[in-house]
Design brief:
The chain folds into 2 domains: 201 residues, 3-Layer(aba) Sandwich (Rossmann fold), CATH 3.40.50; 188 residues, P-loop containing nucleotide triphosphate hydrolases (Rossmann fold, 3-Layer(aba) Sandwich), CATH 3.40.50.300. The chain has 16 helices and 15 strands.
Length: 403
């Protein structure tokens, strides 16, 4: 595998990489950077935590003409948290080169963002809604864009974001260079991409077991009323890193946080009803290690790059296998190992089977005491709580017996 020295990057970029203690490109970086430096369009799929941000940020910086003080590159991301994270990487690379970068997203005052654009921002990282807002108001023009990135492309091109993305793309030059990056690229992403990319280089570095992150999956079958007791036991275990617990709804995550706080657990909660300032403070504490347990909705499933997350717990299942991939991808990042624990109640089994089919893998299940469970065929599962399925065939766990 080549080193970054062999890719012909700016000396300023090499100094930043050295300061970050990064010497060897990850597979997605090795595959993506050369064609992007050549001006090719790229569709890249790689496991979350594999270094996608640097894979597009390094060539983007190389393509910027420092002397031209207008907007030349736009990176669209689906969430505010990811916008701040990508901007943090971009700013480290841009500043030593004399390149001006800024970040724009909703939940913050419009004026300072407009002022940053007017001062000559050459790179903007932003969310679709706020970017489109600036374009519509005429405070940001995209006619000088030469490099366009859609990060988390599967989410950026879904039904919710697609109209805004289409309108933004319509304002950019036809001859721009475009890159799509994501941990998952469903077939429909490729179909939509054909409208906007020119003979793209397709890169799939996350399709082999060797390329997969080192994540140990543990799946516990638990009665619904026992989930909280099992979660407490897991949180009481000693771990070397931080723990990220995922719930399904804002209301549920908030209530779970209240119950744990009352029991003395040092936790923070991240969910969509928080103000942007509150969300940033929560993430800052978690990144700095001041909080070791973070409860979150899917708002943290994408782009939360905290290397010391050693464990992800799915207290409740996500809606899709793509979201499951993004959730568990918060651990085992950049060559580190991690653990993903999923708690299944009887009502979760149909959804869990969908997730396993989508992933193309079946995970062994066990009781909270560590006893292996023989998984029954899909048809009879939980048809009768008392007599069918793996729950019906075994006695209630020691957790419920202590209640």
């Amino acid at each position: 595998m080549p080193s970054f020295n062999e890719l012909g990057l700016r000396p300023s970029s090499m100094k930043v990489l050295t300061a970050m203690d990064i010497e060897i490109p990850t597979p997605v970086q090795e595959a993506s950077i050369p064609p992007l430096l050549e001006g090719r369009d790229v569709i890249a799929q790689a496991f979350t935590g594999s270094g996608k941000t640097l894979a597009f940020s390094l060539p983007l910086i190389e393509r910027i003409q420092v002397k031209d003080r207008w907007l030349q590159a736009l990176v669209l991301v689906p969430t505010r948290e990811l916008a701040l994270q990508v901007y943090g990487v971009m700013e480290k690379l841009a500043r030593p080169s004399g390149i001006r970068a800024t970040v724009i997203y909703g939940g913050r005052a419009f004026g300072p963002q407009q002022e940053a654009i007017y001062r000559g921002a050459q790179v903007v990282v932003g969310t679709p809604g706020r970017v489109l807002d600036h374009v519509t108001r005429g405070t940001m023009t995209l006619e000088g864009i030469t490099f366009f990135v859609l990060d988390e492309a599967d989410q950026m091109l879904d039904r919710g974001f697609a109209p805004d993305v289409e309108r933004i793309l319509a304002e950019t030059p036809k001859d721009r260079q475009t890159a799509l990056f994501s941990a998952t690229t469903p077939e429909w992403v490729h179909k939509v991409a054909t409208k906007h990319l020119r003979e793209p280089v397709v890169i799939e570095t996350g399709t082999t077991e060797e390329a997969a992150p080192d994540i140990d999956h543990v799946v516990y079958e638990v009665w619904r009323e026992d989930k909280f007791e099992v979660l407490k036991r897991l949180l009481d275990e000693e771990t070397e890193g931080a723990t990220l617990v995922f719930g399904r709804t804002k209301h549920g995550v908030r209530n779970l946080g209240i119950k744990l706080e009352r029991l003395g657990y040092d936790i923070d909660v991240l969910q969509g009803n928080l103000s942007q300032g509150q969300r940033e403070r929560v993430l800052k504490r978690f990144r700095e290690g001041k909080t070791s347990i973070l409860l979150a909705t899917n708002v943290a499933a994408r782009g939360l790059d905290v290397l010391h997350v050693s464990r992800v717990i799915n207290f409740e299942l996500p809606e899709t296998h793509e979201l499951f991939t993004h959730r568990v991808g918060r651990t085992g990042r950049m060559g580190r190992s991690g653990t993903a624990i999923t708690l299944l109640s009887p009502g979760d089994i149909p959804k869990w089977r969908e997730i396993e089919r989508g992933i193309g893998k079946t995970f062994p299940r066990m009781t909270p005491e560590g006893e292996p469970i023989k998984v029954t065929p899909p048809k009879p599962a939980f048809a009768n709580r008392g007599s069918m399925g793996s729950f019906g065939r075994r006695r209630r766990t020691a957790f419920s017996a202590r209640r």
